[in-house]
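Hi all, long-time lurker, first post. I run a small reading group and we've been trying to get comfortable going from sequence to structure in the token notation. Rather than ask abstract questions, I figured I'd post a concrete chain and ask someone more experienced to write out its structure so we can walk through it together at our next meeting. Sequence below, copied exactly:
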Amino acid sequence: MHYGEIKNCDVANGIGVRVSLFVSGCRNHCKDCFNQMTWDFLYGKEFTQEVEDKIISLLAPDYIDGFSLLGGEPFEVENQRVLVKLLKRIKTTYPNKNIWCFTGYILDEHLLKESRARCEVTDEMLSYIDVLVDGPFIVSKKNLMLKFRGSSNQRVIDLKKSLLENKIVLYLD
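-- Answer (accepted) --
Happy to help. Here is the structure in token form:
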């Protein structure tokens, strides 16, 4: 897996101060995507054990509220197989820090049902995520007033409650 960027003090991609990882690789290719260079699976740098260790150390300070995962597309199968290990390590090391994930896939259409986004680690990966921002960016539904999303079709989902209650529970309207 490759990644485009790590932000060690991000306040735009989730509530509070966060460490964010922008992974490379996306097959969704949303029109007018803000991060088109990350569509290429080889964009940026290789994600190594040293990079994972760096992320874990960046999460250590008390003022860091959590971790955000963006792309590219974290739920491309190739990325999931690497990211599931990172998310598990974050939850094990910092159980009180939350994990946000941004995906162009739709939770109840693509991630919980058979689709090109599902693989043997999808359910485990979902189990580590607290808040999922789902849905493709749709330029005709662009709204700069929305928190943590670019278009009105995207949802900010309380993933823990949604999985527990077997229905979509929004974190933010």
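A couple of things your group might point at:
Helices lie at 49-58, 77-93, 107-111, 122-128, 159-165.
The mean pLDDT is 96.
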